[in-house]
Amino acid sequence: MKINKQTIMSYQNFNALSNDVIELAKEIMPNKVIYINFLNEKVQVTMRVSKNNTDVNVKEGITIPVDDAICNQIDYQSGKPLILENIRENQFNERVNKTIRDLNMGSYVGIPISFKNGVRFGTLCAAHHDKSHFDDKDVALLSSIAKLFSYYIELEQLAYKDPLTNLYNSQFLLSRKDEMIQNGGLAILLDLDHFKNVNDQFGHMVGDDILVEVGSKLTKFIEPYTDAYAFRLGGDEFLVYIKEHIDYKTAEALMDVLLNELRHWKTPIGDISLSSSIGAIQFVANDFSDTTDLLTHCDTLLYKSKHKGKNTFILE
Question: Where is the GGDEF domain (predicted)?
């Protein structure tokens, strides 16, 4: 499952914990600017920055292409900090060096923050506008703080994920409710046709394999979108939310793609015709009073698609 800035910011205690991390790191390196960067495969986002008396131009909320980022030069697999006491003496490409100049950075240390599965979250950084020395003990202490921070992020991930499909769960949906209603977008509610037959004929382990496949298919389905989420609401019911406003013709084409994906299975299920029914709606800000209202409407459309003959969609 991809991670983005909005996902991280929705974690219940992220603001408080990140501020505490910054303050602890500031005690260790009081004359440096301390900041937390988030990186995914596309962008780097500066999430938190300490108050500082250095001329480094790091500001909260700044987003740059990940290929321009200093933090992208860290070897996340090894987990080793990147220490640059004179950052202007390096072998980076021009894009990274332009970032160094833009930030007016003279020295830098970046502590990698990663999940147990190896997926990176980002970095805990300390920097100064002039070249400077980083004490080994101080770097080790920063590394310990970064490790504790990663444990917290890991726990939040577990709390918000469905353990079977690795999709987000209903708890995470509740944490997104205000944003969905206030922004609008495309909501897609679906369930599987004849899924009970799979469980009855082959057992729940095979049924679980099918649900895992659905999780993989929905994850791939939302990959092209910067701000999109897939949820398992329970059983064989799933929700996809795409924040981007999509024209009706494109949305119809997306429904056809999704129906086709959910007709073909790697898991052996004999001659059972396993497909999906979909109720979807394009909505604008404040069309619905709350998430329950939105889901009720989608569920009505899903019910209509079932009565239309299954393996189909209703899109409003």
Answer: 183-316
Q: Please check whether residues 36 and 107 belong to one and the same domain.
A: yes
Q: Please work out, in degrees rounded to the nearest 5, the angle formed at the alpha carbon of residue 149 by the alpha carbons of 138 and 6.
A: 130
> Residue 163 pLDDT > 50, yes or no?
yes
CB 296 within 8 A of CB 222: no
Q: Domain check: are 30 and 81 in the same one?
A: yes
| Segment 168-208, tens digit of pLDDT | 898 888 876 677 888 889 999 999 999 999 999 999 999 99
Do 127 and 33 meet the contact criterion of CB atoms below 8 Å apart?
Answer: yes
- How far is residue 172's CA from residue 29's CA, in Å, rounded to a whole number? 36
Task: Domain of residue 200: give its range.
Answer: 170-315
Which residue reads 């697999």 in tokens? 77
d(CA 291, CA 272): 34
Alpha-carbon span 74 to 112, nearest angstrom: 7
Distance separating alpha carbons of residues 180 and 241, to the nearest angstrom:
8
Res 1 pLDDT > 50: no
165 domain residue, yes or no:
no
Question: pLDDT at position 227, please?
Answer: 82
pTM over 0.70: no
